[in-house]
Amino acid sequence: MHTGADSLLQVPSNVSLIDGWFPTTVQLLVITTAAAAIWRRGRRWRRVCLPLAAGVGIAAGLGLRWYSMSQGMSASPLPWILWVWCGIAAAAAVAAAVGWTYGQHWQQISAVACVLLSMLAAAHILNQWTGYIGTARQAYETAVDAALPGEVPLSALDDMRRDPPRSGVLVRVNAPSVASGMKHRPEVVYLPPAWFTGPHPPRLPVLVLIGGAFNTPADWVRSGHADAVADRYAAAHDGYAPVLVLADVSGSMGTDTECVDGPRGNSATYATQDLQRYIQSTFGTATAPAGWGIAGWSMGGTCAITLTTAHPEVYSTFLDIAGDVAPNAGNDQDTLARLFAGDVAARDRYDPATAMRTHSPQDYAGVSGRFVEGKPVGGTEGLAELTKEQAQRSQAPGEALCPQARAAGIDCDVVTTDLPHQWGLAEAQFEEQFGYVADRLLARS
């Protein structure tokens, strides 16, 4: 982890990576460098290199698009302009490589610049689509893993009891993966002011937060501002709020485990055994399931309902923000292979609908939760391109699962919003629903 205080001062915090002049400038520079790379080329280059570059670019764009759909990377197709920029990057790379011995130096440099700028333009489209990183400073902080606001070393907590803080504190932790063997990144824990009162911490409830497949644990602070939400709640409740655990169930950026045990890692065992034991022993939190909740968005939303229905002995409260109806990594066949190595029994254990049928109402005594449903990923365009299996897995989980949950003995309700499937949805709905989750956990722990 780097503090990078001096360097951060050099990064303008108000340069938007979502809209404004910067993304537009990058796209204009792509067009400019592409034009410069092909300007005043010879006849042989135009007849051989240019068609070759164009063909590779088209093939690359279409191939990447097919691959993203086949891997179930999203519940709806990614924006077509993303593949255009990817195709331009591939074409420019071919033009630079094949045509390096032809033309002037400024043309060769333009081709290389076009590759880099096209990749940056594609990254912007993806970022804009997800609402992941808002500003240049946030991008820098994420890239260097800069210290979070209010972050202190774990070793400093005991000394802070002599002068308790007025707002919550963030600490980095690394829970041992004793039972799961799961490789994961350092995680973040938020401790409310009440944790520092007295010689020993009160047994506060815990809310585990899980993001999407493309995430870092700190995103719940940098993009979701979960610590600020908890601070406002604590300020209105004499310093009391749940302990927040910003968990890593993926192990790396882009690894979609769906919080199940399988080839991508024993994520479920980590989230229900290793993580819980570490948090309880390190921070003296609640131990009964009544004091443990789980919330997440996108993949994390799927995790919330999946782990609660499969493990009611661990989690009694869930908040599912825009998850799927079941663990999802493509069509049914691909999901079975990628997440469960073909083990049908394992798939059924982590299918919420199946889990609710196999548990008794007594198992779910005291379990409750809330589904939040927004717009489909990227809006409604392209949904017709999904397979029937993908559409079924991506349908609104509240509509599909809440009636079954009530029949199984789980108290649940559904909240709908017009916000698109982006970090803005997670941030807004976490803040709006936090009172419901915190009130319930504090009352029962």
From TrEMBL:
GO molecular function, one term: acyltransferase activity, transferring groups other than amino-acyl groups
This protein's name: Esterase
Keyword set, alphabetical order: Membrane, Transmembrane, Transmembrane helix
InterPro entries: AB_hydrolase_fold, Esterase-like, Mycobacterial_A85_antigen
A Pfam family per the record: Esterase
Species, as recorded: Corynebacterium heidelbergense
Keyword Transmembrane found: yes
Transmembrane segments: 20-39, 48-68, 80-102, 109-126
Residues of the signal peptide: none
